Amino acid sequence: MSKAAIVSMHVIRRLPSYYRCLKELQKNSVNKISSSELSEKIGVSESQIRQDLYNYGNFGKQGYGYDVIKLYNALKRILGLDKTYNTIIIGAGNLGQAIANYTDFEEIGFNLKGIFDINPRLFKIKIRDAKIMDINILEDFLATNKIDIAILCIPRDNAQVIADRLTKCGIKAIWNFSPIDLKVPDDVILENVQLSDSLFTLSYRLNEDDLFKRIKKEK
Amino acid sequence: MSKAAIVSMHVIRRLPSYYRCLKELQKNSVNKISSSELSEKIGVSESQIRQDLYNYGNFGKQGYGYDVIKLYNALKRILGLDKTYNTIIIGAGNLGQAIANYTDFEEIGFNLKGIFDINPRLFKIKIRDAKIMDINILEDFLATNKIDIAILCIPRDNAQVIADRLTKCGIKAIWNFSPIDLKVPDDVILENVQLSDSLFTLSYRLNEDDLFKRIKKEK
């Protein structure tokens, strides 16, 4: 069992979209926004937004709405985006390299400190500032470097073994791209990237019209 | 504006996790499950599950729970996973190649028919059964091949131009990995992959204990 969250995961999973919306508003120099406008922009009901934010304090005033900069800064702090994080990537295949090259993460405070692989041919390559290193020195590296997040970009078969090695070395957060249910200790945070969920949303929507025609006929 | 969904997107976004859970249950030869057990497994309240599913018909019986195989098959059909889809990937960089190599999508009916790039050095390469082709022949290719979903794996700068070319050729669904808000016609379905949302969930959870200590102190 991975670490349990204090607030419901459903609330937590809505926060990034709030943050993205407020960031956009702030970029466009909007100073305040009514709760109905915010609700429309985010696609979540006014009362749900109010309820979600209430977990973290009092935001928004009756009859005024939300102060954009204040709420943006609050969400940034709530999401832990006022800090920086040291990350490593395990697996320097296409996916690992794609993530390593994604400079946006660096810009928002996720600093890549190293990449690990089993393939000796990759060991001399550097992606931006991060070296690709032998997975055999993972334990040594983690003993001397403070790493907050390990990003798992390896095939399913090795994922559990590597996750065990990481958590044994004290890694407390794993961002997992391997399509497998990892088992991690109770104090470790595991975030699985479910790419297929997003793809299924697309296939759902490609069929939604037909689906409701069929449902209507069956009634 | 991309195409509007009939059912709330929040409901739609919960369906893939229902599906994954039922698939697992079915694989483990579980025949029926109570609504409270299902609720616990999925992490969504019993009434929410009931309400969500009610959009698509009557599932589950009072005092019995859910018939696993029946619900699994229904969800498969609802998500459009009883059909197959032809896909193309735009962008044969690391991310494009990673997605192309991800055989799991093929297994569930998403068949990759081609990959497009601007780099002539890649044009002779084949990833599994799909050729990498010159982006200049995109329109010709789409005129003679029925493609359901275009997967956008290109840098932000070119994404809108390519999206315009795709929709002009009649592409009705775009799975977008570029970190940009694309504009598409009203009848096109756009699904943005927000990798950073998942990363922000992780940074949130790394800070949640400290956050609530601070909130408690401020009260």
TrEMBL record, chains A, B:
Modulates transcription in response to changes in cellular NADH/NAD(+) redox state. It comes from Thermoanaerobacterium thermosaccharolyticum (strain ATCC 7956 / DSM 571 / NCIMB 9385 / NCA 3814 / NCTC 13789 / WDCM 00135 / 2032). It is found in: Cytoplasm. Residues 17-56 bind DNA. InterPro entries: CoA-bd, NAD(P)-bd_dom_sf, Rex_DNA-bd_C_dom, Tscrpt_rep_Rex, WH-like_DNA-bd_sf, WH_DNA-bd_sf. The keyword Transcription applies. This is Redox-sensing transcriptional repressor Rex. GO terms for molecular function: DNA binding; DNA-binding transcription factor activity. SMART domains: CoA_binding (SM00881). The gene is rex. Keywords: Cytoplasm, DNA-binding, NAD, Repressor, Transcription, Transcription regulation.
